[in-house]
Structures are given as structure tokens and as C-alpha cells.
Amino acid sequence: MTSLPPERSRRILTGTNLGNNRDSTRQHNLSTVLGLVHSLSGVSRSQLTRATGLNRSTIAALVAELVQLGLVVESDLDQAQQYGRPSIMIQPSPGALALAVNPDVDVVTVALVSLGGHIVNAVRFHTVRAPSAAEVVNIVSAIYAGMRTSLPAHQRVVGVGLAIPGLVDPVGGTVIDAPHLGWRDEPLAARLSEALKLPVIAANDAVAGARAQATFGAGCGVSDLVYLYGGASGIGGGVISGGRLIHGSSGFAGQLGHTHVRTGGVRCTCGSNGCLEAEITREELIAAVDLPHGETENLEEVIMERLQDQVQSSDLREVIDRQVQVLAVGLKSVVNLLNPSMVVLGGFLRILVRAAPGALSEALSTTATRGPRENVSIELAPLGDDSILVGAAELAFEPLIRDPAGFLRLRTAVVEAVHNEIPVPAQTA
Ligand SMILES: [Zn+2]
276 C-alpha to center of ligand 1: Å? Predict the structure, then answer.
């Protein structure tokens, strides 16, 4: 019989306290059921009954309401169930979509993501230089207009999640500082919302990635997780501790790329010297294999292939070995400070583990304190890691999952207001 991961079950059960009145209890239960169907990408009725502690008829009524709202579908019986009556499977409806947007220094990626974290359609728009915020609005508007024309009538976009390689004001979604893009105080979420007539929620890209890893990826069910992502715009991080995403006092926690790794080191965009993201860069790896601009998408495969020739790749090997040692110094601080049970490496950081198997763990074992280092496993996000897009979509899905019926009621009112040219009230995260 299939069962939920123990950590996941425990987390859900602690969240099923009854609300103050009937409406809030129903909203809470709808939210819990939709959250389970979403994060597990499908779940049987009997699993829902066990995980929530609600009785079968209540689960049936909640599922019926979610079906009516167009958020889940009932499908075939759970064939994996070995005992008792087969249970009906509940899956996320393909009809509810989020638009995920991730601008970076050389590409703007726009994707439609369905409930369950599945990327339905993704477009990568390459740029010759870092785009301005206004250009991002134009690029995303044009791509979204094209995507909308091919959407069947039963599919609707409920909101936009914006993953930014920089600091984002968690309240209004203003990009406070994205040094690699050259942006400061850009109200991108508000401008995009105005252009697309959709609610837009923005966050740091690696924080969005951490959220996706904890919900769907290697860290599913892991309550103490660090996600470290290396991209064209440096290194970002997100921290899940005790099952919760760590935001900090003003929403900027997880700036792991600015962990100090070398006194008097390379100047960083933050104004300091010797930060992790200044000392190890994707650019250095690209230069080591002499890959032309615009052909860097397959960097990992190119490097792994070049390393086959030990003589010809000695310079590349030197760069990788140095980056591994520097990453270990950065991870030492992270592991000692946060005591995670898992560190997930995404983007170009994957290459360092694949190109030098065991080297990072070995370097870490001689630097980090014995207790924390013995508990931590280092995992790789999948090749072609989509965590940032899936995590961006999570930002947009969050208000829907928190209050499915209420959110859709509000969306319908907003869509009607736009259609009838009635001023739309400002929407907040
Ligand atoms: Zn820095």
C-alpha cells in the first residue's frame, strides 16, 4: 500500500487543527486536501483520509467541491493499493495554471506550470545583454499573449510567480537590488501585474527553488534543507528549517552566495570581498572550456566530455578542483550554522560534484564540525533543474491553495471587472 513520507504526514497532521467556525474549518480542510493533491501530484482518497484524520464522507465532500472548482480531477482506482477496496485517485486538474517568470542576465524564461508542479510549456528568450525591467515586461507580455492563444478553454492562468536573481521586497514585490541585471528599486511585480492583468508575486530565485525542492524535489519531506543554486547571476540559496522556509526579519534570509570564503578575495557585487559567488563562477567554467556566448546551455555535458581527456583537460581540472575546495569552505559555514540533513546543489554547482565525485564531501569532512557534518547528505538537483520555475509557480499557487474557493471568487470578480472596465483594486501578495 502506498503511504505518505513520514515527515510529510507529520507536517500535515499538525496543520489540521479545527478552525474557529464552520467556514474557516471548511476553508482549512479544502486547503489541506488541495495542498496534498498538489504536492504529491495525485493521492488516493484513502491516503487523504489517513493523512488528514477526516472521515471518508468529509473527504468525499471536500474532493467534490475541489472538482467543481476545477482544481482536481478524480481518476482511476489506486492500483498500488494491495489491501481493502481500491481507492479512487485524486489528481491535480490540468486546468489551473501559473505563469512562472525568471529573468536572468542572458535569458528570460517564461513557463506555464500546472498544479502538481508540472511544466506544461516553457519559452526561453535569449538576450545579448541583461534586459531592463521594462524589456522584461514587454518580453513576458508577448510570450504570454502567444501562450494564451493556444490554451484550451478549460485552462486558466491563476497568477504569476516571478523569480528574481536578487533581493526582492516580500511585501510589494519590488526588486530592491539585482546587481547582475543592473536593477535597483524596480517595481517589476506591479508593472507586470498591470500589463498581464494578473496577480504577480515575486521572490528571490534560489528561495523559490528551495521551495520547489522541498515540495517536489530531492528534499520532499525533508524538514531541514539547504538549496544552493549556481547560475549566470551568481549563487543563491534558500533554507528550510524545521519544515519552514526561513525568511528572516525582513524577508532577505538565505543570501548564501555572500558567505565569506576568502579574506582579501575577489571583489563582490555586494561591495565586499571574497564572497562565495565572487570566488566561484559559472563564467570561469565557461572560459575554461572556451564555450562561445549563447552556447552555454549544455555546459555540464561539455565539461564532462572534456574531462574524458585527462591530458587536454588539466587546466579545466585545476579550475574544478579549486572551485570544489572553495565551495567546501562556504558549505562549512552553512552546515555548522544551520545543521541541515540535506544540501541540494543546483545549476553549475552540480558540475563540481559530478566532475570530482566524493571531493566535496571529503573536503567538507575535514572542515565542518563533526556533529553537523555527519548528519548531512549532499544531493544534486536534476539535470536541467526546473526548480526555479516550479518554485516561481508555487508563489502564484500559494494563495489559491491557502483558500481555494475564496481565491477563485476574487479572481472571477477581478476578471469581470477588467472585462467591464471597472477599476481593479490593487492586489497584494
Ligand atoms: Zn557578496
Answer: 7
Cβ atoms within 10 Å of 290's Cβ, excluding its own: 9
Residue 42 lies in a domain: yes
C-beta atoms surrounding 341 within 10 Å: 15
Q: Tell me, in angstroms, the distance from the centre of ligand 1 to residue 257's CA.
A: 7
Percent of the residues in the chain that have a pLDDT greater than 90, as a whole number: 62
Rounded to the nearest whole angstrom, what is the distance from the C-alpha of residue 290 to the centroid of ligand 1?
26
Q: Distance from the CA of 405 to the center of ligand 1, in angstroms?
A: 43
What H or E segment, with its residue span, contains residue 222? none
Range of the domain at 194: 96-207+393-419
260/276 Cα distance (integer angstroms)? 6
Phi, psi of 199 (to 5 degrees): -65, 135
For residues 34-59, average pLDDT: 92
SS3 label, residue 201: strand
Count how many domains the chain has: 3
d(CA 90, CA 45): 7
